[in-house]
Each structure stands twice: as C-alpha cells, then as structure tokens.
C-alpha cells in the first residue's frame, strides 16, 4: 500500500529536516518546501495527503498561502507558528487550517496529530464513498465492487468464481454475523445442506483466502470463529 504523503512547508531548514525525519520514521513520504512557491509546485505535483505549514515564510504569509492551497486541495493543514496569541490561531484556522501548534513543539506530538488528522480524513472519505456508491466496499488492501462483480487486492484485479464472490458478498454485507458452513451453503446454493456440503463451503473459503490473503494460514479478512463458523473482519 502506498505511503501517505506529507508536505512540510517551513523556511527554517533544521526544523523542516527534523519534522521530515520523524515522519519518515513513521513510514510517511515527506516532501520539503521552504517557501510558498515551492509549496504550490509540490502540491500540484504530488497531491499530498496532509500539509504542515509555517505561518512566517520568506515570500508570503502562511495564512495567505493557506487560502491559495485551499483552492486546489482539501488535505488537512496543521499550522506551525511562533505566534502564541489566540487571535493568531483564530486567523489561521479561519483561513482554512485544521490545527495549530506553537514553536517550540515536541516532534512526537506533531506526528501524533498528523496521524489523528489522517485517520479522520480517511474516515470521512470512506463515508463519502459509501454514500455515493453503497455497492463499493474498501478495506485495508481490499476493494470489492458488488455491482460490477469486481475484486481488487492491493490495487490488482483478482479473478474469483461466481460462488466465491457470492460467499464474500454475504460475509461483507453482514459483518457482525457469524455464518456456519451450513448457513453459507443453504444461502448461496439455495438448497438444504447435506452431510458433505459443509465440506464444500470449507473448500471455497480456503480458496478465497488464498486469493485474498497475504498469509492464508493467518487470515485478516475472512476469519474463523471456533466452533461456530465464519465472519468478515469489519475492524479493517
């Protein structure tokens, strides 16, 4: 899965490099800009997922730059500033900022705020996507389009049989329910489950896991509930 991109806009190079190094340690892809012009260029080229923005820049004011950024990006913006007055914070947030931290700051706290804003942004994006198309489901590394009968793992299309897809659909649409092999068979095959039919379901589940899971012996999507059956992992 691609790393999330963070644009750091600060003309103080030691601070810029420090922030980028902490972000890199957390597996983010960090880009440095030292003035407003560079920030706009990188924004257009890289489309970052979040922006860390200094208030005082050599060629523009951070709040003015924020207004420009907001014309082309909805990415969360965290302001960094040596200004501590409440009015400065109000102006920055009114310009389109999402958060405000004063210098000096703890890099660990900044990274924690970055993660919090990205989680919130991802949640809002997922909710919007589901509202726009309730047949499209996205999980960590897995995308399922129920209407188009399409399945993608890490962005790559995966071929599944009709029955395999119907089993996956049943589990995804009922994430809180644990289905026994008998219930799955009778729902998908639309007939009574005989003695050996539960084994058929087990084979289909095993095949699905091989196609979906990086480690089929330790599945994260279709999980087993001992002594009961199968369910879809809704916590992804």
From TrEMBL:
InterPro entries: CheY-like_superfamily (IPR011006), OmpR/PhoB-type_DNA-bd (IPR001867), Sig_transdc_resp-reg_C-effctor (IPR016032), Sig_transdc_resp-reg_receiver (IPR001789), WalR-like (IPR039420), WH-like_DNA-bd_sf (IPR036388). Residues 134-234 bind DNA. Residues 5-118 form the Response regulatory domain. It holds the Pfam family Trans_reg_C. The keyword Phosphoprotein applies. One of its GO terms (molecular function) is phosphorelay response regulator activity. One of its GO terms (cellular component) is protein-DNA complex. The keyword Electron transport does not apply. Keywords: DNA-binding, Phosphoprotein, Transcription, Transcription regulation, Two-component regulatory system. The modification 4-aspartylphosphate is found at residue 54. May play the central regulatory role in sporulation. It may be an element of the effector pathway responsible for the activation of sporulation genes in response to nutritional stress. Spo0A may act in concert with spo0H (a sigma factor) to control the expression of some genes that are critical to the sporulation process. This is Stage 0 sporulation protein A homolog. It comes from Hominibacterium faecale.
